[in-house]
Amino acid sequence: MAMSYCATCGVRIGGQNHRPVKGFIEAHGIPDMTRPGHILGHAENRSEAPNRNHTLAQSCLLRLCLHLAMLQGAIYDQQGIRNMIHPNVNDVYEFLWQHLEKDMEVLGKTLNLNLDDSAIIIHLILSRFLQTTSGAGVDLSTRKSREQWETTVCKTVISPVLKNFERTLGRAQDLIAADNQLSNSPLMKVLRGDPQKLLHLPTNCPTHHSAFWSPTPVLTVESFSQQINQSQAPLLTLFINKVHCIRQLIHLPALAALLSDLIKVLPPGSENQTHTIASLLQCIPAGHQRKLLSERVEIFMKVWNKLRMEIINNTSLGLDPTLYEKDITKESSGQFLSLSHHGPGSCLHAIIDLLSETHNSLVREARKLCHQEDRDYKVPLAALSKSQLALCHPEKELLPLVLANCHYKLEKGQQTVSSSDHKAIERELSRRFFAGKPRIQTDTDKYLRRHHQNFIEVLDEVRAKIPQEALKASVLSSMRSMLRSFTDVCDAVYAVEIGLRFLGKTGGDPQVLLLSYLTDSLKMDQHISSTIAEALKENRLSQCTATWQLLTCWKSEQMMRKGQDPFQRLSKDFRDKLTSEERTQVKVFLGLTDTDLFSLELHEILQLKTNSTVEDGFAPHWDIRSTMESHLEMKNITSFPGLDSLPDEITLAKAAEIWRLAVEFKR
Q: Across-strand partners of 418?
């Protein structure tokens, strides 16, 4: 066993010699985390992803039965039914009626039936319910019992009716047409009668039969799903079961780019809970970066709202059930854009993991179909492109394949009977869309580790392997003048931080140019614009920590000038205000010292040493002069002009205010 700290909250975890740390509680099984109630949301926005392992038709009929039961229950206890619906609704009857209409629409599309025929199928289902189930003594209080009940209903009620439902439906229609009260109806004569009695038609013509006048069924993905035999067509079955994810698979590269953007632009912190997504995006300076990030956030919200019901069925993602109860909008909490292992910040990771596994499962199944080994041909998520994805548009590409491999049989007086060659469809699907595709190497945890890792450790590792030196004043000035764009500064910080993480593990020649290391050794050309390259062209590996220090401080200065808070994660304990006397004393000190060096070092303290989760961090009651001396001594900086003029009474609690004053003083 090993000792460590939780990356999210900083609590000590692990143990030694098989003895856990204090506070460890042994888990005796995972309880049912499913939240009971109706969480589909409003009908117009709900996902039609099948529940659990049911077919689309089975899932639709189960939902319809649920909504009928809730509507019946609302008659006797409207408030009780309202309490079951998450999020809350005002008009329970209207809400349930809209869902019933949606259920009818989806069922008709799935079985290729009109509204009347769909209603007949539902009546047949309800009739069989009465014949096969008593409805008494059923305990549905746990997830397992509900799953068992659904399986039983599908096996004993729904599947027998749907098996050869065309024949069953035909018999039901004949019984309706023969009903004494309906047989003389003009409408029934038109629908079911002999057209020769109504129209002047030639004798011995196929048009004599009503089957001639029946419209050809429209092929849809939903109706095709009813024809597939799972054991005979595993790839097609997988495709149909994941069709809702496949529709959104094209957005995976944009979501991966958003994950990277959030690291560079929006630092995580508890303060995000006071922001909405819209207000958080407004904190980013206007320009290409904000426009691109806003577009990617829109994609994230759209994909989440489409697939949140899929996530409910995927328990391996381990999301809090309350997160997928409602859609994400721009008025939702800004925490959805804050990367974390738990809570709203984990939703983006869950969507990326779900889509990546969709792609990988299709690639694996296609390789099995072609009797290929599951090779180690992978691409990292950050380098993923659309051309590498297993993209196949269900309507525009799958259905033409189905029609191309469809056989038709016509008998006189009967409707045309069609059948599809599923094996041939599978082969074409695999060859055209999945063959040669790599698997996606998904490691979204690395973004979290990068987010929450104590960067002091990275800098210490670099200093231990590569002797460091300060940047010349001319270089500082040159870099600031070149990096005027906030986007360029963010990209430069991102690139240098990655370089530091590698250098901390591998070391390097102090005289090698930092730009050469990033572009030639780490192949980061795509992350480094011509402006960034020009700004870093003179910096060496012996100055990489000083480069990072300047870039992060310059980024905060730009945010401050735009009226934004550069210390979003800083505790309120370090945000006290200076008195007028203290401001005068600090200004006297700034006139004596090297303001550039002081602002850089104080910014590093605020960024790295004031976090409560950091071991040996600085406390707000420490006086700033002694703290700065200790900090500089650890970095082997022995001379710092004017530091003695700082009064002992000024503490780190006012460090953020002092840093802002130093930045203004430099102007």
A: 408
